[in-house]
Design brief:
The protein is built from 8 helices and 12 strands. Helix 2 packs across helix 5 (160-171) and helix 5 (160-171) runs parallel beside helix 8. With 267 residues, it is of the alpha/beta class. The N and C termini lie far apart (56 Å). The chain folds into 2 domains: 3-76, Beta-grasp domain (Ubiquitin-like (UB roll)); 93-245, no CATH class. The strands form 3 sheets. The chain has a 5-stranded mixed sheet with strand order 2-1-5-3-4, with no helix packed on it. Strands 7-6-8-9 form a 4-stranded parallel sheet, sandwiched between helices. Residues 4-74 form the Ubiquitin Mut7-C domain. This is Mut7-C RNAse domain-containing protein. Residues 244-267 are annotated as: Disordered.
């Protein structure tokens, strides 16, 4: 007969357990050979969501093989969660799956390097995330279980507001609002009104004088009808990042960028 081990799961991870068995303490059969990572995933918890684990008070990792009678404590990832730094970068880069299009636009509004495709399958997403060292954001638990993925994170929440709060609270990235194209992720640069007058509707030409253009796709931006709403998103995001960092102040660079709002942002 197989031995048993006791697994205590952090409250933040209970959402990944089947609803009928969503209790923090589980006694599970153990065959003597499976790794702790395999056992935790068999409960439904993707390993990218798992933080510190201990057995008998001693830290262990996913490759650890417990013994019958062991009691395992499984914690959630720390917040803010560090991401392996890249030279010259102050914030992680992100890649979002097909279901997170509005979140992608909001992250770009905040100046975060965010790749998004509405037609890319799971293997291709993993390849891009690995090659470009992007954090893959998804609500697909199966995608997070792919062993080849270098860094992934489950996005909590069904509404874009909640999803954005979750990502900012988890990673506390440095924000550069108004510096990226919300349509394609390219960089925005100031453009003189005289250079783009022919592209503007008559009402826009009369009402606005400050414009930006995407270096990649050519999209023109100005502070349009959605400006106040977008400003509120930026203010709330800046506050959330400051709270996540525990400094009570806006993160360095959070108010950077030029004075323009993206008319292409859709809610």
């Amino acid at each position: 007969m197989d031995a048993e081990i006791t697994i205590r799961v952090a409250d933040d991870l209970l959402m990944f357990l089947p609803a009928a068995r969503r209790e923090p303490v589980r006694r599970v059969p153990y065959d003597g050979t499976s790794t702790l990572g395999h056992l935790v995933e068999s409960l439904g918890v993707p390993l990218p969501e798992v933080g510190p684990m201990t057995v008998g008070g001693d830290p262990v990792d996913a490759a650890f093989r417990p013994r019958g009678g062991d009691e395992v404590l499984v914690g959630a990832v720390p917040r803010p969660q560090p991401v392996p730094p890249e030279p010259g970068r102050v914030s992680p880069r992100f890649l979002l799956d097909v279901h997170l299009g509005t979140l992608a636009r909001r992250l770009r509004l905040l100046g975060l390097d965010t790749a998004y495709h509405n037609d890319m399958d799971d293997p291709a997403l993993v390849v891009q995330a690995n090659e470009e060292r992007r954090v893959l954001l998804t609500q697909d638990r199966g995608l997070l279980r792919r062993r080849a993925l270098w860094f992934g994170a489950y996005v909590r929440g069904s509404r874009p507001d909640d999803q954005l709060r979750d990502v900012l609270g988890r990673f506390a990235p440095v924000l550069r609002p108004w510096t990226r194209c919300t349509a394609c992720n390219g960089g925005l640069v100031p453009v003189d009104k005289t250079e783009i007058e022919r592209e503007l509707a008559a009402g826009t030409r009369r009402s606005y004088d400050v414009y930006g253009r995407c270096e990649r796709c050519g999209q023109v931006y100005w502070r349009g009808a959605h400006g106040d709403h977008l400003e509120e998103i930026v203010r709330e995001a800046t506050r959330l990042v400051a709270d996540a960092r525990g400094d009570g102040d806006a993160p360095d660079g959070a108010a950077g960028g030029t004075d323009r709002a993206g008319a292409a942002v859709s809610e």
